[in-house]
Amino acid sequence: MAALKACRLAAQTAAEAPTTTTSLRHLRIASSAATHSYPAYADVERLQGRLQRALLSWKAAAAAAAMATPSAAAENTTPSRSSQLPAPPAPSLISFTPQPTYTLGRRQTAPVDDTERARLTAPLTVFSSSSPSSRAETASFTPAVVNAPRGGLATYHGPGQVVFWPVIDLHSPLHRNFSVRDYACLLEKTTIAALATFTAGRLRGFTTENPGVWVRHGETAADGVDGAPAADNERDERKISALGVHLRRHVTGLGVAVNFGMPVSGPEAMNPWARIVACGIGDKRVTSIAAETGAATAGLDVTIGQEADSAAAELADVWAAEFATRLGLPTAAAAGSTEEIRLGAMGASLPAVTLERVIPEDVD
């Protein structure tokens, strides 16, 4: 069995945690399980790229202003607002459920051959509810296969999952600062806390030497604390959330994906995980919130009390609130800064909007 670890964030003093009224900007990308309408992974990448460029441009301007201000350059500090430097962009979080997509990490050094690509892109049946049933409506998708600038091997993103991509500057003056290692831990601890809150303590996540968040079937939040593994290591470890990040000048990209209500067993025609060895870990199973909490066929059960679409939105808001708190920011819900936006060709019921309306491209 792999050695287990508890993710620990380095302590931060009160002096190191900025006092700010800035709130986390939560961009919740609209989708609909009922109509099988989901944004394309590539469209969300474009939005993420625009947010990243805004932060990178501000950092470049701040560095230039610091060099032009001898006292700031000598002290290696950000120049004051009186230097006419615009305020830094607010930290952002994108949450979304994409069309079926397989992503290949940087460890995927061998190219995908024609046979493997045909297997990955074979038609995939997607259900309108959290688990297959005679009452669930279906749709057929051809999964996309894309390269991702993260570590690791192949993984899957698609319906029945909620993906979280924070776009923040790890060294921002607006919120707590993090090392790269602490940032990965931040994502894992945020996910662990969000799972416990969202399921009312019915799921207890923990971390291992492998990235991401794991659960054991039948184990609840009362069985352990602070993301540490429980004493009983014999129970089945299952991965419920994948983690993969990319950094450029301490500006973050990608993030975590929480398996919400997708098939995690069964044939390749409907179970996307059957086509790959998820993240290259062949001896571990993948699971979902629905599988671990005993979901009803029409959505999550009455304990959670929401249909699939509204429950996924609720999970996104819970995760965003937890992340904002751990950044030392007001929660997005309290600040009224959650925005639902629609991207790409998502059907008549979900018309597209341009990225220009989300963030102006005036930073290049």
From TrEMBL:
Gene Ontology MF term list: lipoyl(octanoyl) transferase activity
Biased composition (Low complexity): 72-85
Limits of the BPL/LPL catalytic domain: 87-323
GO annotation terms (biological process): protein lipoylation
Pfam families in UniProt: LplA-B_cat
InterPro entries assigned to the protein according to its UniProt record, in alphabetical order: aa-tRNA-synth_II/BPL/LPL, BPL_LPL_catalytic
Stretches for region Disordered: 72-115
Identification of the protein by name: BPL/LPL catalytic domain-containing protein
UniProt source species: Microdochium bolleyi
Taxonomic lineage: Eukaryota, Fungi, Dikarya, Ascomycota, Pezizomycotina
